[in-house]
User: What shape does this take?
Amino acid sequence: MEKQQASPNWTVIIAGLVLMLAAGALAGALYFYDGLGMLASLPDQIASSDVWTSIRALSGSPKPVPSVTPSSTAAAAPTELRLPDGMPEDFALRLWQEQVDSQAMIGRLVNGDVTTMAITKVDTSSDVSTLTVLVTLHEGGNVDGRIVMRKFGDAWYVSTVTAEERGSSTASSPLPTVDEVDIALLNTMIAEQRKSRKITSEYADGKVASIEIKKGVLGPNTVRIPVIMKEDHETSSADLVAIKQQFNGQDLWFLARFGKTGSSPVSN
Assistant: This one.
């Protein structure tokens, strides 16, 4: 018996014709309309077109079209302060301004000009802790200084770090408005300092006797300053992190985070 000849695969033929027509249309667009933009978008057009639907239906084995997730755009800069519940706006603005007023000393820390800070006195009230310090400079000599921390809730926030010649003082500057500060940076300062509340509370409680300050490690607009803290119960290593921001044409450094990296008991 003569074998029956196999019939052509009409599904494949029709699909090939459809693709040929699509290729012809593309060639015409490139020739007459310089359709390079169309070329770039062609995969999306095919995936969503009736042509692709027809091909999948004719093939008898439909496959899902891979979905493409749009690339995320950069988040817009915040336009308002995001403070812990109940924190007054003036509290945050005071932290900002007092760090701006402390640029001389913060700059010394960032530049590696300070070797040690000996805490000679701690005066802590319900919401303000003032640490009197004796600062030893890398170039030699000592200057008096102070560290002021302000409390909100269960956290102490570092606001003032100054080192002045004996007998000198600095006057407080007026508070800025929200429009006069970098809102994103101030939000970061508040959030990061809150994370450091366990270590700053040790200073307010008078548990830290001195701080040995190492050379800072620079990063993109940041500096990590390793320190060794001599405490009444242990010797701890920690990192002080400062953030740089150009504001009104001036580079400013802000102390953002203070976290322990390790500790060991004090040997007797």
